[in-house]
Amino acid sequence: xxxxxxxxxxxxxxxxxxxxxxxxxxxxxxxxxxxxxxxxxxxxxxxxxxxxxxxxxxxxxxxxxxxxxxxxxxxxxxxxxxxxxxxxxxxxxxxxxxxxxxxxxxxxxxxxxxxxxxxxxxxxxxxxxxxxxxxxxxxxxxxxxxxxxxxxxxxxxxxxxxxxxxxxxxxxxxxxxxxxxxxxxxxxxxxxxxxxxxxxxxxxxxxxxxxxxxxxxxxxxxxxxxxxxxxxxxxxxxxxxxxxxxxxxxxxxxxxxxxxxxxxxxxxxxxxxxxxxxxxxxxxxxxxxxxxxxxxxxxxxxxxxxxxxxxxxxxxxxxxxxxxxxxxxxxxxxxxxxxxxxxxxxxxxxxxxxxxxxxxxxxxxxxxxxxxxxxxxxxxxxxxxxxxxxxxxxxxxx
Length: 398
Description:
Layout: H1 17-27, E1 31-34, H2 43-53, E2 58-63, H3 69-74, E3 79-82, H4 87-98, E4 105-111, H5 120-152, H6 160-193, H7 210-232, H8 234-250, H9 255-265, E5 273-279, E6 285-291, E7 301-302, H10 306-313, E8 317-320, E9 335-340, E10 350-356, H11 364-382, E11 387-395
Parallel strand pairs: 1-2, 2-3
Antiparallel strand pairs: 4-11, 5-6, 5-10, 6-7, 8-9, 9-10
Helix pairs in contact: 1-2, 5-6, 6-7
């Protein structure tokens, strides 16, 4: 891919870290692309040596190990890209950081994955709304108690039941439970302020906290009814799913998100394991996400077999016990299907494979479901990762 670019010249390809350092020392390139998990010397070790001895060579880390991001940037890496980054984006980073100094002005950016990017913009809004609702209901309950107490006595605390029920219906089980506990504390304060003994008379049935337990049950029960209502409302459920997906995917794909995407396909078709492979520079497919198997298999590569065939021919390929299975770890697999990750009119960027530990016939309907999901994954993988501008008007790196 790099060699095919008119303005880039590939001067060497290394099989391990030691060879990478030798080639960099020999050719003094403008830029080197390093994996981290390499034999003999890791990418981080090569990065530190290059930055100390050949600072004019920019380094782009291209790795599955997102945990090294902060360490690599601190050591002087120009960029750290996960291996699910679209190749076009990788080439763009190479072009941006590898150019010798010129009069061209560029915008320096930091490519982000989900690591270090919280959901504060969503969770804070939800928390404020929940706190506002709870505070309003507690104030309402206090007012209702004080109005009803001259007539009802301590039994005015029964007014907390509809308040907690309403809170549960609005906020869900967690909100209902929190409101129940807070209103119980509020009831104790209101009893003392109106010269009533705790447990008089409405909680005398237990004197052991049964009233509080009942109130908590009311809050959680009405909260659960809210969840049931959401499940019955198909449109509301889909809207909520879209919102959750948007939040989860806004900041890009990392290993955790890819793992959940692999697991999600098992909700669409019968299966016990799902694997996501992406094409990598130098040829072949690399396993970047898996569900239903040990995560230690991540990073394995395939250049032949049924999975590679699905990628090469860009069509769904059945996987049977007679085929070379994806890996030895799937020894119990009895059947499966591999589909290319591609959108109409575009070459595939990887393969999605689903396996079952029992005899399963993946017919046209199941294959169509996996293919459609594969198209969705292809769109995510080809999308540019989120970036945030750090500064503008900086000269290109020398």
